[in-house]
Amino acid sequence: MWGWFGGAAASKQKNTPKNAILGLRSQLDMLQKRERHLQNQIDEQDAIARKNVTTNKNAAKAALKRKKQSEHSLEQTLGQIGTLEAQINAIESANINRETLAAMERAGDAMSKIHGKLTPEKVDETMAKLQDQIQLSEEIVEAMNGIQVGNPIDEEDLEAEMEAMQQEQLDEQMLKTGTVPVSDQIQRMPAVANGEPKGKAPAIEEDDEEAELRKLQAEMAM
Predict the structure, then answer these.
(1) Beta-carbon contacts of residue 66 (< 8 Å; ≥ 6 apart)
(2) Which CATH number applies to 2-118?
(3) For residues 191 and 198, is the Cβ–Cβ distance under 8 A?
(4) Which label site among 28, 44, 68, 115 has the fewest CB atoms less than 10 Å from its CB?
(5) Model-level pTM?
(6) What is the C-alpha separation between 208 and 203, in angstroms, rounded?
């Protein structure tokens, strides 16, 4: 119940500027109507005075008197209109200022709730923890990528095994075809020392080599 009364009081206080402005505008509307009425009377009495100024001076004089009275009332009415307009503008400006301040206060409260207990120190602390976790993750990945299963493989052993396999294939090919590659024969023949440059071998006819090899194979078969 007390909350209802408190809410009603707050609502009434909030509507006070609005009600005041409505009352002033209503009074201003009435004064503006009076202004138009007095102006019509002034114009009417002025016309009567002009009409009777030469023919009926008493009527013209009475019309001018009524005109002066209406002009005086019009001046008062115009002053009241100016005062009401100034009050309306002042109340509207004050109400706008109040509503603007209230909006800013609500914005401040909202930002306070959003930030909560957040401080620059806590932000720095959180960022530091996050950076540590990122660094730890990278170290874990590097450690996992650096794991070697079994003993490390020697590249020299691989090269030696590949050369042995290649030599084995060449030997099999020689046994199947009964021929020896010319390059192997040149490498195996000694250098001639009769004035010829070292590293050069005499030309050998390929047909003679094949014939000699076949002869050697036949003797071994015997």
Answers:
(1) 41, 45
(2) 1.10.287.1060
(3) yes
(4) 115
(5) 0.47
(6) 11
- Look at residue 1 in the predicted model and tell me its pLDDT: 45
Amino acid at 217: Q
Length of the chain: 222
Q: Residues 167-202, buried b or exposed e (16+ Cβ, 10 A)? A: eeeeeeeeeeeeeeeeeeeeeeeeeeeeeeeeeeee
What are the residues whose beta carbons fall under 8 Å from the beta carbon of 129, sequence distance 6 or more? none
Averaged pLDDT in 10-residue chunks for the chain of 222 residues:
49 74 93 96 93 90 94 96 95 91 91 84 89 90 72 75 85 76 52 47 58 66 53
Domain borders along the chain are: 2-118, 161-221
Q: Which of 55, 49, 56, 53 is nearest to 70 (CA)?
A: 49
Distance CA 21, CA 27 (A): 10
- CA distance readout (Å), 128 to 26, 132, 140, 167: 66, 6, 18, 62
Two structure tokens written together for 174: 């020689």
Q: What is the pLDDT of residue 12?
A: 59
Distance CA 23, CA 1 (A): 31
The pair of structure tokens assigned to 111 is 């930002």
